[in-house]
Give the backbone structure.
Amino acid sequence: MRKLIISIFQFIPYSITIYLLMLVIWGNYSPLKKNLIYLKGSYGFSNTRFQEIKKLKNIDLLFLGGSDCYRGFDNRIFIKHGLNSFNLGSTNQTPMQTEVLLKRYLDKINPELIVFAISPVTFSMDGVESSIDIISNDVNDFESFKMALKLNNIKVYNTLIYNLYNELRNKSFIEDSIKGLDSYIKGGFVEHTLTYYKNTNSIPIQLQLNIDQLNSFENIVGMIKKRNIKLILIQIPRTQSSYESYSNNASFDDMVCKYAPYYNFNKLIVLNDSLDFFDADHLNQNGVECFNESIITTLFGNK
Amino acid sequence: MIFTSFAFILFFICFFLLYWFVFNKNLKLQNFLILTGSYFFYAWFDWRFLALLITSSFFSFFIGIYMVKTPIEKHRKILFSIGVIQALGVLIFFKYFNFFINSFIHAFSLFNISINIHILKIILPLGISFYTFRILSYLLDINKGKIAPNTDWILFFSYVAFFPSLISGPIDRSSNLIPQLERIRTFHYSMATDGLRQILWGLFKKTVVADNCAVVTNQVFSNYLSLPASSLLLGLFYFTIQLYADFSGYSDMAIGFARLLGFNITKNFDFPFFSQSLAEFWRKWHISLTSWLTDYIFTPLTIAFRDYGNYGLSMAILINFTAIGIWHGANWTYILFGLLHGCFLIIFLLRSYTSQKRINKVARNYGPFRKLINIITTFTLVMLSFILFRAESVGQAFHYFINLFSFSLFSIPPSHKYNELIPLLLIFFMLTIEWFGRDKDYAIATLGYTWPRPLRWLFYSSIIFVVAMFMQTGEMTFIYFHF
């Protein structure tokens, strides 16, 4: 038995070393990615956004949420109304990642108001994709390790390890500000070249809300309230077919409205599925302008 | 708490430490730990079925004892019948009740007679087919006088619920496992490292090969009406490999965990895809089930039908293979799967293709090329029969089969769509290793044994890396959990 225990304790560090070496080789040279997904400078401009937030202090408005958030709140429109804002949305961001980002940046940027874009979709996700995006594009701290342990997913672990290796290499990276039809706008907004959505029918589904996401959501609300920052919960408009495909919208609304003032803009404004969207879940620039004007009127009156 | 889950690893580490460091001095305590550990493991899946497992063990334990105690032969036979009926009755009720009712209703509907019988909402208890067969083998062996009944309830209950093989086998006979439970286990370094190697190889087969094949297989079988025949063929090939890698991977892990506890449990697979005939295939596929059925069904039947020559033998084969089919599940697809293999074997039997002497003679005369042809032919037949195994209904199997033989068989499968080439590489790697290790208990049993330690460990570490890199991240269960 002693021999086995000694062998195991010798094998574990040996195996970890080999694993790390292979992971680095795989990340650098393998055309196959499989369980090592490294999204540095990938879609969503997270890298540029995280670089920008590090230079910010004391803003009026902070937007949080997924891709519908960074494609839905145009900072230029808010500036016109005298509101200095930042959009901290990231791809498929779920409450679990929002919590990590808030712990990282909330005290630094100290916003007066937080607009948190939520939907049943983000509450039902596991948060793996968003974690990989954040780990790949932001500096990793203790919160990243906590998030990885919470998700307990091999893809997240591998990305975290590989990103730590890249951080050690300290290789400079500058992200393009235009990618395909998307342009990064200072303040975190991503503008999509005006295109229109060709409506297709969606299959009705009942989303199963993830208990970990609910817990993180409650933590976020607690964290914001503790700092006496005003919090507004918003559901960003989606195409009618996409919105109606989720059968638990009503129960979701009932649940979240207990935590903070909540506005479901799918019910508050009328948009055209083709003219105001570029895909089923994202507003095009026409839709963004209409939605942003509406939200400013709703939240601030005629500021 | 499946073998590939973090929960199981944690459970096993705790169990292992308690087993070898705390309970190692006293056999009874060690067996008691096996029993409580097994019940904890089983209850983790669904605690409600634990009562059924305990009740079945309880019945067979006392029936076994009283079968021998009673001096009257008639009473012994009655007790034996009660034991068998109880064990089989539970299995039939939970596994086949609704199937029989549905078939009954369907049969009458063919004559325009409608019968209004309600089916029950029955959940299949995990591992019921496996532990029932363990109980049956115990009662049958006592009845034949092969073994004496066990009077130590902890030991007997541990035999029925032995957790490494409780959920998906191998189906251990009482004559193999009970004697090992009766003697104090001593720790052997070589046995433990061998177990770890076998777990590693099983883990690779399950998480890397089977689960990656499953992604393609599920997509192909869900869209078989709209896909070209070449994709159907690829999907079927992947399913064949998936089934093997999934089940043999589980068996390897089960054997490996048992070896870490000092037990040698039954080997379940012996590289069946390198078989040169169907008869050889069935000697190497799910060995613990086929040998069980051979001993308790096929052999008694051949003796009973011996006066009828080849007809009697054919009948015994058909009954045996129908039993193999129906054991897998309550669906006509499984019954047809068994019957089809029975028919194959009868045809080959009558043409003497199954004779090992003949195979050896042919192999000598025609060399490796003939061997390869035999292997490919056997694999193809098995693969085609697996349509029935995977299909949800006989109709689906029929349509899949028909669509498979169309001109689009010669088209290039839309590989970009289903990422189909990655599993192909993984399968090639697995089969290559298995080919070179085919005369061992498992593929990597002695691979690298003579290499220097760092090189050998590099090989094991590489497998761990491949597992981590290719494993599917969602919860992937084992196919044979459904049986």
